[in-house]
Backbone:
């Protein structure tokens, strides 16, 4: 693979965050349901978010299935409506992609089931049936699987089990520790070094490894560590790298994704975010987008510049 600094590696532009965009558009929005509430009460807003990102230039939209877990919508509601809601999320993303004036792919979001950012809460036994339900419901509508915001390699191992047997590509996206991190340090929120986590995903068959839902400041070191680890096993040409940061302040080890609506940083507007994206591109990222608090205006700026 040629150096991305030469511009010879093509860029796939991902979409941005869904929850904050739903909130901005006036969709029903509250905790703990978060982005799932729009699917329950006003799904046309979800379609509008997908269209907005496509119009901004995204080459891929992600299903609004991140909050379709008992952690957000409750055990009873998930048992009763989880499969239907995931089917709806898949269909809305597929319809938006198919109506686009250019090819747009759909990523099926397979989220943390036991709580974002919280490696200590992971429970494979609880998470497995939820992820299996999501996979079955989303399968007819998606082009690839995106296991995102993973805090530990054991969570990745479970995701691999769940998507095993699917003919569709599988992408893994880890979230990084971003509180009190030393410059150049690159670790998952579990404390595991990035290099080992990336190689574990690659050995399990992931076609791409990304970093998301963390501060942009910590992603560059993770990409550098990833490139070195993959190169050492001669995997650099077969595993794509990517990044989509959030716009929040650092999340603590006690953070819970449905505890409050986090404040978005005021220093990560489209132009500032572009500067981080340029660094990720130079560090080897060929998949770039945004997570929570990063909207269509950011994606449009990336499209124009990159």
Residues:
């Amino acid at each position: 693979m040629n150096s991305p600094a030469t511009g010879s590696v093509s860029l796939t532009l991902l979409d941005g965050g869904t929850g904050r965009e739903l909130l901005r558009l006036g969709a029903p929005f509250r905790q703990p349901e978060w982005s799932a509430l729009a699917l329950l009460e006003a799904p046309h807003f979800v379609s509008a978010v997908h269209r907005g990102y496509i119009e901004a230039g995204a080459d891929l939209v992600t299903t609004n299935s991140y909050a379709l877990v008992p952690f957000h919508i409750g055990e009873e509601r998930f048992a009763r409506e989880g499969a239907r809601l995931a089917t709806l999320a898949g269909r809305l993303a597929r319809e938006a992609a198919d109506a686009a004036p250019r090819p747009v792919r759909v990523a099926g979001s397979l989220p943390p089931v036991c709580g974002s950012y919280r490696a200590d809460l992971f429970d494979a036994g609880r998470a497995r049936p939820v992820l299996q339900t999501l996979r079955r419901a989303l399968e007819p509508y998606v082009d690839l699987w995106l296991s995102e915001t993973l805090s530990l390699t054991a969570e990745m191992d479970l995701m691999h089990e769940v998507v095993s047997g699917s003919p569709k590509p599988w992408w893994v996206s880890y979230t990084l520790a971003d509180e009190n991190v030393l410059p150049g340090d690159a670790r998952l929120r579990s404390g595991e070094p990035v290099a080992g986590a990336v190689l574990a995903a690659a050995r399990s068959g992931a076609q791409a490894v990304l970093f998301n839902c963390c501060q942009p400041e910590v992603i560059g070191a993770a990409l550098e560590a990833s490139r070195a680890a993959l190169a050492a096993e001669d995997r650099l040409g077969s595993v794509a790298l990517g990044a989509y940061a959030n716009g929040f302040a650092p999340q603590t080890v006690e953070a819970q994704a449905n505890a409050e609506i986090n404040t978005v940083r005021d220093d990560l507007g489209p132009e500032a975010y572009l500067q981080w994206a340029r660094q990720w591109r130079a560090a080897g990222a060929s998949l770039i987008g945004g997570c929570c608090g990063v909207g269509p205006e950011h994606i449009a700026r990336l499209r124009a510049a990159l």
